[in-house]
Amino acid sequence: MLTQDDRDRIQAKARAAIEGATMRKDPWWTYPAAMAGFLVAMLIYSTWAGLQTTNHYAEPYLSPIFSPCLALNCEHATFRLVGAWWIVSPAVLVMWLPISFRVTCYYYRKAYYRSFWLSPPACAVNEPHRRYTGETRFPLILQNVHRYTFYLMVANLGFLWWDTIKSFSFPDGFGVGVGTLVMVVMIATMTLYMASCHSCRHAIGGHVDRFSNAPLRHEAWKLVSRLNERHGTYALASLLWIPVTDIYVRLVATGTITDLRLL
Question: CB–CB of 66/242 below 8 Å?
Fold first, then answer.
């Protein structure tokens, strides 16, 4: 039986040997550099927003960073499950789930492995790391929780859908505001991101032995497979639109801008 050291040596020898720093003549570094900047910007804003305790609700809009809002100190609680003793931001109760889901996502792994760890930085570019152990050791072995966070995120997506539906309900009845459209784009990008997820594809049909015995699941699997081809696009679009939605709600809540009613 191979020991872990034997596996490490085999994996290390399997790396492509490149003479010099790179065989590329194009500006290959622009992708990892731009991705690093984008991810850092999203992380900084989302962390700041998630630690705020006010201005995350402007009727009828609830920031997705705070959904579901579970604490008594919520400006608009979805469920009041946590009492007044909770004095920090209510987003802390829920934001760990989308963070863990995205961090372990297959697409985001590729993005930040290349951008921050340079493993690998790009095709035909020499790696700075001498050894390669994959995701077989701590902490990267924790990436395997992705399939489980997916199921929890399905429930989270349900709350986001509920928030979006409520964005059509104004004090004077049904209506559509600019904020409503912002919420619709948010839920559309999140739904596409979730539906195109590799874990979703597996949950629908990855463990079916014979698709001929499950024609409906086969059709669903083919649809998700087509969405999966653009999973990276949906991942980035949904990540961008969460802060955009929060910013819009925050600006309306502080009175900086007025939500324009379209209908």
Answer: no
Per residue in 97-122, pLDDT tens?
999 999 999 999 988 888 888 777 77
Exposure of 231 by Cβ count < 10 A (0-12 exposed, 13-18 middle, 19+ buried)?
A: buried
Q: What is the rounded distance in angstroms from the CA atom of residue 6 to the CA atom of residue 8?
A: 5
DSSP letters, 1-33, are ---HHHHHHHHHHTSPP-SSSBS--S-TTHHHH
173 has which bridge partners?
Answer: 170
- pTM assigned to the model: 0.85
> Are 165 and 184 in contact, with CB atoms under 8 Å apart?
no
Residue 89 amino acid letter: S
First to last CA, the chain: 69
Whether residue 198 contacts residue 235, with contact meaning beta carbons closer than 8 Å, is answered with: no
Local structure of 169: helix, strand or coil: strand
| Contact present, 192 and 227 (Cβ < 8 Å) | yes
